[in-house]
Amino acid sequence: MTDDTALPPDGEPEPLPDALRAQLTELPRAIEPARDLWPGIAPRLAPRRRRPWWNEPRWLLVAATLLVIGSSVGTWGALRRGRAGRALADASAARADTTAAPAPLASERAADRELGGTLDRLAGRVPDSTLAVLRRAAAAADTAIAQTERALQARPADPYLQEFARAAYQRKLALLRRAASLGMTRS
User: Fold this and answer.
1) Per-residue pLDDT reduced to its tens digit, 70-84
2) CA separation (Å) from 48 to 25, 45, 102, 159?
């Protein structure tokens, strides 16, 4: 579009003066820039790679929200089932005979009774400092066993407590067997 006010009344542009025309013809047709500008322009013209749809910020936000909601619902359900399961276990434990020892620990108790005097028999065969260390270790194991036995009286069907008691007995029995082997090699 042209501006009608810039044209003469007949609609034709005025010819350029000859002096101006001569100056224009002397100008170069193209000018080389002082430095190569193309490396700065080309990356801006290249098509940008789009992120995959699942890597867009809004979809990541949706996924995080769903994850939080899902884990909350799962935790709520697990806690709800856990309370019901605990109530059932408590009711069955109340019906169980709490004076009877769980059968899986009977062999560990018998072995403990059998090896019970091992440390007393070591007196005079091993250094007193070694015997003192062995007695402290056996006392610590006895404390763990006694605490676990009390807990098992309250919850005899608890498999975790049974496993912990079994492990405590096995650690004590391993200590007593090793102590007995020390006494054999020193006699």
Assistant:
1) 888 888 777 777 665
2) 42, 9, 70, 60
